[in-house]
Amino acid sequence: MTMADHGDGDQGTGHSFRVTRTNLADGRELLYFDDDPAFVSGERSRELTDRRDLPPAATQSEMRQDPLTGQWYVYAAHRMNRTFMPPANENPLAPTRPGELPTEIPADEYDVVVFENRFPSLSMHTESAASAQVDGDPLFPRAAAVGRCEVVCFTSDATLSFRDLPLRRARTVVEAWAHRTRELGELPGVKYVYPFENRGAEIGVTLQHPHGQIYAYPFVPPRAAEIAERSAAYWREHGRDLFTDVLAAEVRAGTRIIAQGEHFTAYVPAAAKWPVEAMLMPNRPVANFAELAEAEKHELTVMYLDLLRRVDRFFEGVDRTPYIASWNQAPVGGAAQGCGGMRLYLQLYSMMRSPGRMKFLAGSESGQEAWISDTTPEAIAQRLRDIA
């Protein structure tokens, strides 16, 4: 059932943490990321045994390629009946406490936890597709959706949000992202590792417990592929890094800068399309979380918490702005070749256009991806700067 403990630590900035691995009753992996000194030292240990009676994890997800666009779409019919807005006493992301229903997490308390999703879109347990083609036609390629989907629980307290985490705990989440990016990127067939968080019922969140996810794709998703292509073309034409030039241009203009640090810059992109949108980008080329230096991880955590708190005060009368935190990284493995200096950056955005009103994607946006914005990037930046 269990695997050996191993520890990681960052002594340079005073942040230490310990990673403890185990397997859930159906074989899925779970990792505790602890920053509590008693667990870091080994004085205390987490519960490793999942006492539920679960069948072995297995999925039948498949992918099909659209012949018109070349994009891969994933079909995961087993997710139709996944957990949806459970009552508090059935929260699967809560700790398992005496006298209550067992959850996905065996311990009665935790700092940060990462585990394989019980209802994954992509899985290493996925069986092979029936054939390599739909209807036996080479126009419609098909493949097993082999990859991995993980859940990242930011805290055991279901009433909190990421913005409420103390700096030490938020830093442990950043360490978890780095750890998982490194390991998932080494899985066979994985080409892209994508950490993200959806927050708010308005955008379809089905579990209110503060958590995010990490997808390890067997293909480079469309947005990342498009950015890779453009950055590679920019390098061929100009002999310079596109991200470096974009960041330098934003700093020169200054009108959309939210905050600048030694290692990161927060700004609203000149072509922002969402009603609320900001980017947080490292000042040097860094491909992913795993490549960040310790001082960079620390500053990233501080600036990310500040940005989240600003976004949550963006609208009068709205305490928690619904958002998507999208952590873009460079492709991994062989897919990283020729990506033109792609780097890690956050795209944080909200579909809320005014208090209680959401921007719905109508024909132009959904049908043709031709965006029409209801505001300007400069106005978004000014509001985010004004929120102290």
TrEMBL record:
Its EC number is 2.7.7.12. Residues 42-63 are annotated as: Disordered. Residues 60-221 form the Galactose-1-phosphate uridyl transferase N-terminal domain. Gene3D superfamilies: HIT-like. It comes from the Bacteria. The active site is at H211. It is an enzyme of class 2 (transferase). GO terms for cellular component: cytoplasm. It catalyses: alpha-D-galactose 1-phosphate + UDP-alpha-D-glucose = alpha-D-glucose 1-phosphate + UDP-alpha-D-galactose. Its cofactor is Zn(2+). GO terms for molecular function: UDP-glucose:hexose-1-phosphate uridylyltransferase activity; zinc ion binding. Belongs to the galactose-1-phosphate uridylyltransferase type 1 family. This is Galactose-1-phosphate uridylyltransferase. It comes from Corynebacterium heidelbergense.
